[in-house]
Amino acid sequence: MKIIVLGAAAGGGFPQWNCNCNNCSGLRRGTIAAVPRTQSSIAVSSNSRDWVLVNASPDILAQIKATPELQPARAPRDSGIAAVMLTDSQIDHVAGLLMLREGKALPLYCTDSVWQDLSIEFPLTKVLSHYCGVSRHSLAVADFTGNRNARDGAATAIPGISDLRFTPIAVKSKAPPYSSRSAGPEPGDNIALIIEHLKTRKMLFYAPGLSEIHPQVEAAMREADCLLIDGTFWAADEMIRAGFSKKSARDMGHLPQSGAGGMIEVLEAVGTKRKVLVHINNTNPILDENSPERAILAQKGIEVAYDGMEIIL
Ligand code: MLT
Ligand code: MN
Ligand code: ZN
Predict the structure, then answer these.
(1) Which residues are placed with Cβ below 5 angstroms of ligand 2, an ion?
(2) Number of Cβ atoms within 10 Å of the Cβ of 242
(3) What is the pLDDT of residues 110-161, one digit of tens each?
(4) Cα separations (Å) of 6 from 158, 189, 275?
(5) Which atom of ligand 1 approaches the CA of 88 most closely?
(6) pTM value?
(7) Which of 5, 54, 77, 285 is most exposed, with minimal Cβ within 10 Å?
């Protein structure tokens, strides 16, 4: 199976249009060693022909342009994107659906909570019904404490996508600010995905938003061959110290990398598999390839995703 990181940044991208933090201004002026990144999305395929887009970012058109596999040109109108799956209803993961309105109704896989957000508070699906429409498929999730059986019961195959199995796992993160559940997320507002190649049994664990590691999440992480996981913030108070927000990383649904119980400790505890941080906020010092924080990651064998990164499992 092949995974292409279409966009490795969090909401806002890198650089963010209105941001003059050290990273955004340093990148614009060429004074830091860093590359731009678009907003959060990956594409997955077992045959390099039929791709599942996991999350549809506002930067989807630029991402398709940069990824020839997604534009195979077999017919006057054509796309390599065979289906879309969503891990949540955050703007950075769903707004791109509007950009795909000229095509056919895409199969859209999401939980009932996400569907509710996209039908009521941010009624993208209603708007799209006047263009291409969407063909909705429900993703079931076990609750936050779901056991292995409950997890396997939620496994989903996508018609036409041979060889791949998608298993959603409810994770603690955050429903978007516009959601009726923004104050208290429920199982289904945010999922991690285990994406398994049935022939080789290789497993990717993908979770761009994750603020707490429940035991069943940790178990899934241990089983995976590669983790593509929440790399939003380095520090718990990154946005507060920068003066950009009153919310901590955890308040925003993201486990910071540093500190006690942070992502670095979690990744060290789950062993030696390939570990890649994605959904990186533009304030995160790890974007600067010469930063001491990036050196810490390198020393611990933790990679930092970039746009166009390919992972073969
Ligand atoms: C988040 O995951 O917290 C987002 O990147 C926020 C957003 O998309 O605005
Ligand atoms: Mn996000
Ligand atoms: Zn910035």
Answers:
(1) 10-11, 90, 92
(2) 13
(3) 999 999 999 999 999 999 999 999 999 999 997 777 777 778 888 999 999 9
(4) 21, 23, 17
(5) 2
(6) 0.97
(7) 77
